Amino acid sequence: MTAVSKRDDPVGFTNEFIRGTVPGIYEGFGIRIVELESGRAVATVPIATNGNHLGTMYAGALFGVAEVLGGALAIVDYDTDRFLPTVKDLQISFRRPATTDVRGEASLDAATRERMRREVESSGRSEFVVDAVLVDAAGTVVATTHGVYQVRAVR
């Protein structure tokens, strides 16, 4: 397998990184980062492999697609040989049943990213908040999340 360059292909790099560190997200849920740039991440999860007994998307798959967004937002901005993201807390509110593929999106503003850079440089870690919105194929909000994450130096 050829190494994917984060600079040339941040989406491919992040998908490979997550596949290597949390393979169940890919093999099980089928979660994929589909758009990624500094301050913005978008991921999808398919209904085909995540249906439940009610014919709607399994709650764990919705949680998973939302949770991975915070990590992706950190991965794109930090050297993963030196700094790694982790989730500290994530709360999900289910709004409507999802019966189609789901797309999740989250962002971090420039001021937050700058604060994070300063804190990481001075103390080796920084905490950040990510609010994500998950929508179905029609654009209906099916869930929202509020998460607390941290990017920290590798020990």
TrEMBL record:
Pfam families listed in its UniProt record: DUF4442
InterPro entries membership: DUF4442, HotDog_dom_sf
SUPFAM superfamilies: Thioesterase/thiol ester dehydrase-isomerase
Name the UniProt record assigns to this protein: Thioesterase
Upper lineage: Bacteria, Bacillati, Actinomycetota, Actinomycetes, Mycobacteriales
